[in-house]
Amino acid sequence: MEQMKEDLGSDLVYDFIGDVLEERFESLADLMQEAIINREKLDDIVANMEKGLSEEHAKLLKLMQEERLTEDTVDLNTMKREHNRLTVSRIPSRAYSDLASYIMEKKKVRMYESNEGNVKRIERLPKFIRESIPSLTNYQGDTFRFTRYKEYENDEIALLNSDHPLFKLTLDLMKRENDKQSWGNYLISVNVPEPMTVEIYHINIVDGTGKELERRFLHVARRENGMMITLDPIGSFQKTLWSN
């Protein structure tokens, strides 16, 4: 009874208890008379009532769940748009492996290939990398095996992601390399609502044959509070910098 009150509410419980009694007995007086005259049947009466209440409890719970599903409207169009947005913005898993391979090659790290180049192996990181990266102080010469294809992934061959130690090492090496660069600074006067430092990145995308697919500039601005925003590259040259 207490569980029914918790699930359905006291008012609803008392209403259908009355319905069950009326269905099984003509009136409450008949029930009392039956219990007094045939006292030996009282346990059976109680058992039948409990069975009936349990059945009604299950029916009402199911009905309430169906009504709740009906009331909870699902905006399929919004869900589909959000799914598409996440799909487009998600970084392909192969990109992690490609970036790691590229940086390791630039650093002259020896890599071995197998399975027609689909699986790569680094037996041991060079000493100059181990000594320059603080996070590698506990490095014990572990071998890294990784791939850019899901079908080659197993317990010994990793499909790299943002949390993999090798990819984190890749980012660390990139950061250290960028810190060595000498960047040119230019001061320009444009109509902006606040002071900011703007970094311009040249992005060049090519296919497997080397054919250029896209070339563009990415304008990233740092506000005084440290927040990073992107700027409209066309607006930058038209002295109207705001993008989003």
Q: What would you say this structure looks like, in words?
A:
By secondary structure, the chain is α+β, with helices and mostly antiparallel strands. Helix content is about 50%, strand content about 15%. A four-stranded mixed β-sheet has the order 1-2-3-4, covered by helices on one side. Strands 5-6-7 form a three-stranded antiparallel β-sheet. Strand 1 and strand 2 form a beta hairpin. It is elongated, with a radius of gyration of 35 Å.
Provide a compact summary of the structure:
The chain is α+β, with helices and mostly antiparallel strands and 244 residues long. It has 9 helices and 7 strands, in the order ααααααββαββαβββα. Helix 1 crosses helix 2 (10-24), helix 2 (10-24) crosses helix 4 (42-71) and helix 6 crosses helix 8 (165-180).
Which tags fit this structure?
alpha+beta, four-stranded mixed sheet, Dihydrodipicolinate Reductase, domain 2, 7 strands, 3 domains, 48% helix, 244 residues, 16% strand
